[in-house]
Amino acid sequence: MKQEEKEFAALVKEHKSTIYSICYMFSKDKDEIDDLFQETLIHLWQGYEKFRNESKIETWVYRVTMNTCISMDRKEKRRGERIPLAVDIDLFDETDKDMHQIQMLYKRIHRLGVFDRAIIMLWLENLSYDEIGEIVGISAKNVSVRLVRIREELKKQ
Amino acid sequence: MDELQEMREQLAALKEKLNKQEIVSEQLILQIVGKKLKREIIAAWMISTMMAGLIIASWILSLTNSAQMEWEHLIYDVAMTVLMLITIIKPLSMIKLKDIRAGRLLDVAKQMKRAQEYEAGRGRWVWRMFTVMVLGRLVLEVVNENDIFYMYLIGVVLIAILIKLIRGKIRTKKGKTFYKSSWEKEIEKIDEIIRLSKEEEKTKK
After folding, report:
1. Given this model, what pLDDT does residue A24 score?
2. Does the interface ipTM go beyond 0.90?
3. HEC profile for chain A?
4. CA dihedral of residues B118, B123, B125, B127 (deg, nearest 10)
Protein backbone atom coordinates (compact mmCIF):
# COMPACT_ATOMS: atom_id res chain seq x y z
CA MET A 1 0.00 0.00 0.00
CA LYS A 2 1.04 3.58 -0.60
CA GLN A 3 1.91 5.76 2.39
CA GLU A 4 -1.26 7.82 2.00
CA GLU A 5 -3.39 4.66 1.96
CA LYS A 6 -1.65 3.36 5.08
CA GLU A 7 -2.31 6.65 6.87
CA PHE A 8 -5.92 6.55 5.79
CA ALA A 9 -6.24 2.93 7.01
CA ALA A 10 -4.79 3.95 10.40
CA LEU A 11 -7.27 6.84 10.63
CA VAL A 12 -10.22 4.60 9.83
CA LYS A 13 -9.08 1.93 12.31
CA GLU A 14 -8.82 4.56 15.04
CA HIS A 15 -12.42 5.67 14.44
CA LYS A 16 -13.93 2.36 13.32
CA SER A 17 -16.19 1.88 16.36
CA THR A 18 -17.53 5.43 16.10
CA ILE A 19 -18.27 5.11 12.37
CA TYR A 20 -19.76 1.63 12.76
CA SER A 21 -21.99 2.57 15.70
CA ILE A 22 -23.35 5.61 13.83
CA CYS A 23 -24.03 3.50 10.73
CA TYR A 24 -25.76 0.93 12.96
CA MET A 25 -28.19 3.55 14.24
CA PHE A 26 -29.18 4.42 10.67
CA SER A 27 -29.63 0.86 9.43
CA LYS A 28 -32.19 -1.93 9.63
CA ASP A 29 -29.95 -4.96 9.17
CA LYS A 30 -26.32 -6.03 9.01
CA ASP A 31 -26.09 -5.64 5.23
CA GLU A 32 -27.22 -2.03 5.46
CA ILE A 33 -24.57 -1.29 8.08
CA ASP A 34 -21.95 -2.72 5.72
CA ASP A 35 -23.26 -0.57 2.85
CA LEU A 36 -23.31 2.61 4.93
CA PHE A 37 -19.92 1.90 6.44
CA GLN A 38 -18.31 1.42 3.04
CA GLU A 39 -20.05 4.43 1.56
CA THR A 40 -18.76 6.48 4.50
CA LEU A 41 -15.24 5.23 3.88
CA ILE A 42 -15.46 6.16 0.19
CA HIS A 43 -16.56 9.70 1.16
CA LEU A 44 -13.78 9.92 3.75
CA TRP A 45 -11.22 8.80 1.16
CA GLN A 46 -12.56 11.30 -1.36
CA GLY A 47 -12.13 14.13 1.13
CA TYR A 48 -8.94 12.85 2.75
CA GLU A 49 -6.42 14.74 0.66
CA LYS A 50 -8.27 18.06 1.00
CA PHE A 51 -8.95 17.52 4.69
CA ARG A 52 -5.37 17.34 5.91
CA ASN A 53 -5.11 21.10 5.97
CA GLU A 54 -8.11 21.51 8.27
CA SER A 55 -8.40 21.33 12.05
CA LYS A 56 -10.03 18.62 14.16
CA ILE A 57 -10.00 15.22 12.55
CA GLU A 58 -12.71 13.78 14.80
CA THR A 59 -15.13 16.54 13.80
CA TRP A 60 -14.46 15.81 10.15
CA VAL A 61 -15.01 12.06 10.62
CA TYR A 62 -18.28 12.68 12.46
CA ARG A 63 -19.42 15.17 9.80
CA VAL A 64 -18.73 12.87 6.87
CA THR A 65 -20.29 9.86 8.62
CA MET A 66 -23.41 11.77 9.61
CA ASN A 67 -23.82 13.33 6.18
CA THR A 68 -23.45 9.94 4.52
CA CYS A 69 -25.97 8.29 6.84
CA ILE A 70 -28.49 11.12 6.64
CA SER A 71 -28.33 11.52 2.88
CA MET A 72 -28.12 7.90 1.79
CA ASP A 73 -31.39 6.94 0.26
CA ARG A 74 -32.50 3.45 1.27
CA LYS A 75 -32.88 2.44 -2.36
CA GLU A 76 -29.31 3.37 -3.07
CA LYS A 77 -27.91 1.48 -0.12
CA ARG A 78 -27.54 -1.84 -1.91
CA ARG A 79 -25.54 -0.71 -4.86
CA GLY A 80 -22.72 -2.57 -6.46
CA GLU A 81 -20.52 -5.14 -4.88
CA ARG A 82 -20.55 -5.17 -1.10
CA ILE A 83 -17.30 -5.99 0.65
CA PRO A 84 -18.04 -8.03 3.79
CA LEU A 85 -16.66 -6.36 6.88
CA ALA A 86 -14.61 -8.30 9.41
CA VAL A 87 -17.32 -8.22 12.10
CA ASP A 88 -18.19 -11.41 14.05
CA ILE A 89 -21.15 -10.03 15.94
CA ASP A 90 -24.65 -9.37 14.66
CA LEU A 91 -26.02 -6.32 16.41
CA PHE A 92 -29.51 -7.20 15.22
CA ASP A 93 -29.49 -10.68 16.76
CA GLU A 94 -32.27 -10.52 19.36
CA THR A 95 -31.48 -13.98 20.70
CA ASP A 96 -28.09 -12.81 21.95
CA LYS A 97 -28.50 -11.69 25.59
CA ASP A 98 -25.28 -9.68 25.43
CA MET A 99 -26.89 -7.45 22.81
CA HIS A 100 -29.95 -6.63 24.89
CA GLN A 101 -28.71 -3.28 26.24
CA ILE A 102 -27.31 -2.30 22.86
CA GLN A 103 -30.58 -3.12 21.16
CA MET A 104 -32.47 -1.04 23.73
CA LEU A 105 -30.27 1.89 22.74
CA TYR A 106 -30.91 1.16 19.05
CA LYS A 107 -34.69 1.05 19.52
CA ARG A 108 -34.73 4.34 21.39
CA ILE A 109 -32.61 6.16 18.86
CA HIS A 110 -34.10 4.56 15.77
CA ARG A 111 -37.56 5.88 16.65
CA LEU A 112 -36.32 9.44 16.29
CA GLY A 113 -36.23 11.33 13.00
CA VAL A 114 -33.05 11.06 10.97
CA PHE A 115 -31.76 14.51 11.92
CA ASP A 116 -32.54 14.03 15.62
CA ARG A 117 -30.72 10.71 15.55
CA ALA A 118 -27.61 12.52 14.39
CA ILE A 119 -27.88 15.11 17.16
CA ILE A 120 -28.48 12.62 19.96
CA MET A 121 -25.65 10.36 18.75
CA LEU A 122 -23.22 13.25 18.80
CA TRP A 123 -24.42 14.34 22.23
CA LEU A 124 -23.97 10.79 23.55
CA GLU A 125 -20.40 10.96 22.20
CA ASN A 126 -19.82 13.87 24.63
CA LEU A 127 -19.43 16.52 21.96
CA SER A 128 -20.17 20.14 22.91
CA TYR A 129 -23.17 22.02 21.48
CA ASP A 130 -20.79 24.06 19.32
CA GLU A 131 -19.19 20.93 17.89
CA ILE A 132 -22.56 19.29 17.28
CA GLY A 133 -23.80 22.44 15.58
CA GLU A 134 -20.70 22.59 13.40
CA ILE A 135 -21.16 18.99 12.31
CA VAL A 136 -24.87 19.07 11.50
CA GLY A 137 -24.93 22.66 10.28
CA ILE A 138 -27.06 24.46 12.87
CA SER A 139 -26.29 26.92 15.67
CA ALA A 140 -25.37 25.78 19.18
CA LYS A 141 -28.59 27.36 20.43
CA ASN A 142 -30.64 25.28 17.98
CA VAL A 143 -28.79 22.19 19.15
CA SER A 144 -29.84 22.83 22.76
CA VAL A 145 -33.46 23.44 21.73
CA ARG A 146 -33.53 20.24 19.69
CA LEU A 147 -31.98 18.25 22.51
CA VAL A 148 -34.75 19.36 24.86
CA ARG A 149 -37.33 18.12 22.33
CA ILE A 150 -35.43 14.88 21.82
CA ARG A 151 -35.39 14.26 25.58
CA GLU A 152 -39.14 14.75 25.70
CA GLU A 153 -39.58 12.42 22.78
CA LEU A 154 -37.44 9.76 24.46
CA LYS A 155 -39.45 10.06 27.68
CA LYS A 156 -42.66 9.32 25.78
CA GLN A 157 -41.22 6.01 24.56
CA MET B 1 -31.15 6.33 36.35
CA ASP B 2 -31.52 9.22 33.93
CA GLU B 3 -32.32 7.66 30.54
CA LEU B 4 -29.71 9.75 28.74
CA GLN B 5 -27.03 8.59 31.15
CA GLU B 6 -28.22 5.03 30.57
CA MET B 7 -27.97 5.57 26.81
CA ARG B 8 -24.41 6.87 27.21
CA GLU B 9 -23.45 3.70 29.03
CA GLN B 10 -25.12 1.56 26.39
CA LEU B 11 -23.21 3.37 23.65
CA ALA B 12 -19.95 2.87 25.56
CA ALA B 13 -20.75 -0.87 25.77
CA LEU B 14 -21.44 -0.96 22.03
CA LYS B 15 -18.15 0.76 21.19
CA GLU B 16 -16.23 -1.54 23.52
CA LYS B 17 -17.63 -4.54 21.65
CA LEU B 18 -16.81 -2.98 18.29
CA ASN B 19 -13.25 -2.12 19.31
CA LYS B 20 -12.62 -5.86 19.73
CA GLN B 21 -13.69 -6.46 16.12
CA GLU B 22 -11.28 -6.02 13.21
CA ILE B 23 -13.90 -4.37 10.91
CA VAL B 24 -11.30 -2.68 8.69
CA SER B 25 -8.88 -4.87 6.72
CA GLU B 26 -6.18 -4.01 4.18
CA GLN B 27 -8.35 -5.57 1.49
CA LEU B 28 -11.23 -3.27 2.44
CA ILE B 29 -9.08 -0.15 2.19
CA LEU B 30 -7.72 -1.16 -1.22
CA GLN B 31 -11.22 -1.87 -2.46
CA ILE B 32 -12.45 1.50 -1.17
CA VAL B 33 -9.59 3.22 -3.04
CA GLY B 34 -10.52 1.18 -6.12
CA LYS B 35 -14.21 2.08 -5.85
CA LYS B 36 -13.43 5.79 -5.74
CA LEU B 37 -11.19 5.39 -8.79
CA LYS B 38 -13.90 3.44 -10.59
CA ARG B 39 -16.48 6.20 -9.98
CA GLU B 40 -14.06 8.83 -11.29
CA ILE B 41 -13.36 6.83 -14.46
CA ILE B 42 -17.08 6.31 -15.08
CA ALA B 43 -17.76 10.05 -14.62
CA ALA B 44 -14.89 11.01 -16.94
CA TRP B 45 -15.94 8.46 -19.57
CA MET B 46 -19.58 9.61 -19.48
CA ILE B 47 -18.68 13.28 -19.75
CA SER B 48 -16.37 12.54 -22.70
CA THR B 49 -19.01 10.41 -24.42
CA MET B 50 -21.80 12.98 -23.97
CA MET B 51 -19.62 15.80 -25.21
CA ALA B 52 -18.49 13.69 -28.16
CA GLY B 53 -22.15 13.09 -29.00
CA LEU B 54 -22.90 16.81 -28.81
CA ILE B 55 -19.94 17.69 -31.00
CA ILE B 56 -20.88 15.14 -33.64
CA ALA B 57 -24.54 16.18 -33.59
CA SER B 58 -23.58 19.87 -33.93
CA TRP B 59 -21.26 19.05 -36.80
CA ILE B 60 -23.90 17.07 -38.69
CA LEU B 61 -26.47 19.81 -38.03
CA SER B 62 -24.13 22.44 -39.41
CA LEU B 63 -23.63 20.36 -42.54
CA THR B 64 -27.34 19.84 -43.12
CA ASN B 65 -27.88 23.59 -42.74
CA SER B 66 -25.12 24.38 -45.18
CA ALA B 67 -26.23 26.17 -48.33
CA GLN B 68 -23.53 24.38 -50.33
CA MET B 69 -25.11 21.22 -51.69
CA GLU B 70 -22.90 20.72 -54.72
CA TRP B 71 -21.50 17.21 -55.06
CA GLU B 72 -17.88 18.15 -54.35
CA HIS B 73 -18.95 19.78 -51.10
CA LEU B 74 -21.09 16.79 -50.24
CA ILE B 75 -18.23 14.33 -50.74
CA TYR B 76 -15.94 16.56 -48.76
CA ASP B 77 -18.42 16.92 -45.88
CA VAL B 78 -19.07 13.18 -45.76
CA ALA B 79 -15.33 12.48 -45.65
CA MET B 80 -14.89 15.07 -42.88
CA THR B 81 -17.74 13.52 -40.88
CA VAL B 82 -16.25 10.05 -41.15
CA LEU B 83 -12.84 11.34 -40.05
CA MET B 84 -14.39 13.17 -37.12
CA LEU B 85 -16.28 10.05 -36.05
CA ILE B 86 -13.10 8.00 -36.17
CA THR B 87 -11.09 10.63 -34.28
CA ILE B 88 -13.57 11.13 -31.48
CA ILE B 89 -15.33 7.79 -31.16
CA LYS B 90 -12.53 5.31 -31.78
CA PRO B 91 -10.49 5.92 -28.59
CA LEU B 92 -13.63 6.08 -26.43
CA SER B 93 -14.99 2.85 -27.89
CA MET B 94 -11.80 1.06 -26.87
CA ILE B 95 -12.75 1.49 -23.20
CA LYS B 96 -15.67 -0.70 -22.13
CA LEU B 97 -18.13 0.85 -19.70
CA LYS B 98 -19.25 -2.61 -18.57
CA ASP B 99 -15.70 -3.39 -17.42
CA ILE B 100 -15.47 -0.11 -15.53
CA ARG B 101 -18.83 -0.74 -13.80
CA ALA B 102 -17.82 -4.30 -12.92
CA GLY B 103 -14.64 -2.96 -11.31
CA ARG B 104 -12.31 -4.93 -13.62
CA LEU B 105 -9.77 -2.17 -13.22
CA LEU B 106 -6.85 -4.11 -14.66
CA ASP B 107 -8.78 -4.70 -17.91
CA VAL B 108 -9.82 -1.03 -17.95
CA ALA B 109 -6.21 0.09 -17.44
CA LYS B 110 -5.13 -2.05 -20.42
CA GLN B 111 -7.94 -0.59 -22.55
CA MET B 112 -6.98 2.96 -21.56
CA LYS B 113 -3.36 2.20 -22.41
CA ARG B 114 -4.40 0.94 -25.87
CA ALA B 115 -6.56 4.04 -26.41
CA GLN B 116 -3.65 6.24 -25.40
CA GLU B 117 -1.33 4.41 -27.82
CA TYR B 118 -3.90 4.75 -30.61
CA GLU B 119 -4.18 8.52 -30.06
CA ALA B 120 -0.40 8.87 -29.99
CA GLY B 121 0.05 6.77 -33.13
CA ARG B 122 -2.57 6.24 -35.81
CA GLY B 123 -4.97 8.68 -34.13
CA ARG B 124 -2.49 11.48 -34.63
CA TRP B 125 -2.44 10.88 -38.40
CA VAL B 126 -6.21 10.88 -38.53
CA TRP B 127 -6.19 14.21 -36.69
CA ARG B 128 -3.68 15.61 -39.15
CA MET B 129 -5.81 14.55 -42.11
CA PHE B 130 -8.81 16.12 -40.44
CA THR B 131 -6.95 19.39 -39.84
CA VAL B 132 -5.70 19.52 -43.46
CA MET B 133 -9.25 19.00 -44.75
CA VAL B 134 -10.64 21.69 -42.46
CA LEU B 135 -8.01 24.18 -43.63
CA GLY B 136 -8.63 23.15 -47.24
CA ARG B 137 -12.33 23.80 -46.81
CA LEU B 138 -11.64 27.18 -45.22
CA VAL B 139 -9.45 28.17 -48.19
CA LEU B 140 -12.19 27.00 -50.57
CA GLU B 141 -14.79 29.13 -48.80
CA VAL B 142 -12.52 32.18 -48.86
CA VAL B 143 -11.73 31.71 -52.55
CA ASN B 144 -15.41 31.33 -53.35
CA GLU B 145 -16.19 34.35 -51.15
CA ASN B 146 -18.93 32.43 -49.36
CA ASP B 147 -20.83 34.12 -46.58
CA ILE B 148 -20.87 30.99 -44.46
CA PHE B 149 -17.09 31.09 -44.18
CA TYR B 150 -17.14 32.97 -40.87
CA MET B 151 -19.73 30.68 -39.32
CA TYR B 152 -17.77 27.69 -40.50
CA LEU B 153 -14.57 29.10 -39.00
CA ILE B 154 -16.26 29.87 -35.66
CA GLY B 155 -17.83 26.41 -35.60
CA VAL B 156 -14.52 24.68 -36.24
CA VAL B 157 -12.69 26.73 -33.61
CA LEU B 158 -15.42 26.00 -31.04
CA ILE B 159 -15.31 22.29 -31.78
CA ALA B 160 -11.52 22.26 -31.44
CA ILE B 161 -11.74 24.04 -28.08
CA LEU B 162 -14.43 21.65 -26.85
CA ILE B 163 -12.41 18.59 -27.82
CA LYS B 164 -9.40 19.99 -25.98
CA LEU B 165 -11.54 20.66 -22.92
CA ILE B 166 -13.03 17.20 -22.72
CA ARG B 167 -10.04 15.14 -23.72
CA GLY B 168 -6.84 17.06 -23.25
CA LYS B 169 -4.67 19.34 -21.24
CA ILE B 170 -3.55 22.89 -21.79
CA ARG B 171 0.00 23.90 -21.02
CA THR B 172 1.71 27.26 -20.91
CA LYS B 173 4.76 27.93 -23.10
CA LYS B 174 7.02 27.15 -20.13
CA GLY B 175 5.52 23.69 -19.92
CA LYS B 176 3.37 24.26 -16.84
CA THR B 177 -0.07 22.66 -17.02
CA PHE B 178 -2.89 24.96 -16.01
CA TYR B 179 -5.81 22.84 -17.12
CA LYS B 180 -6.39 19.09 -17.26
CA SER B 181 -9.66 17.53 -18.39
CA SER B 182 -11.21 14.86 -16.16
CA TRP B 183 -10.40 12.28 -18.88
CA GLU B 184 -6.75 13.34 -19.02
CA LYS B 185 -6.53 12.95 -15.22
CA GLU B 186 -7.84 9.39 -15.44
CA ILE B 187 -5.47 8.50 -18.29
CA GLU B 188 -2.55 9.61 -16.10
CA LYS B 189 -3.71 7.19 -13.40
CA ILE B 190 -3.19 4.07 -15.54
CA ASP B 191 -0.17 2.92 -13.56
CA GLU B 192 -2.00 3.67 -10.32
CA ILE B 193 -4.94 1.53 -11.48
CA ILE B 194 -2.62 -1.35 -12.38
CA ARG B 195 -0.81 -1.15 -9.02
CA LEU B 196 -4.11 -1.12 -7.12
CA SER B 197 -5.48 -4.13 -9.02
CA LYS B 198 -2.32 -6.15 -8.35
CA GLU B 199 -2.34 -5.28 -4.64
CA GLU B 200 -6.01 -6.23 -4.35
CA GLU B 201 -5.31 -9.57 -6.00
CA LYS B 202 -2.55 -10.24 -3.45
CA THR B 203 -4.89 -9.58 -0.50
CA LYS B 204 -7.48 -12.00 -1.93
CA LYS B 205 -4.98 -14.90 -1.99
Report:
1. 93
2. no
3. CCHHHHHHHHHHHHCHHHHHHHHHHCCCCHHHHHHHHHHHHHHHHHHHHHHCCCCCHHHHHHHHHHHHHHHCCCCCCCCCCCCCCECCCCCCCCCCHHHHHHHHHHHHHHCCCHHHHHHHHHHHCCCCHHHHHHHHCCCHHHHHHHHHHHHHHHHHC
4. -160
* Chain A contact set for B39 (CB, 8 A): 42
pTM recorded for the entire structure: 0.79
Q: Is the pLDDT of residue A74 over 60?
A: no
Max mean pLDDT range (A60-74, A102-116, B68-82, B163-177): A102-116
B125-130: long-range pairs with CB below 8 Å, 24+:
B126/B83, B126/B86, B126/B87, B126/B90, B127/B87, B129/B83, B130/B80, B130/B83, B130/B84, B130/B87
Picking from B8, B14, B24, the nearest residue to A21 by CB comes out as: B14
Mean pLDDT across A124-151: 93
Counting as low any pLDDT under 50, the low residues of chain B are none
Q: Does A58 touch chain B (CB under 8 A)?
A: no
| Residue B13 to residue A8, Cβ atoms within 8 A | no
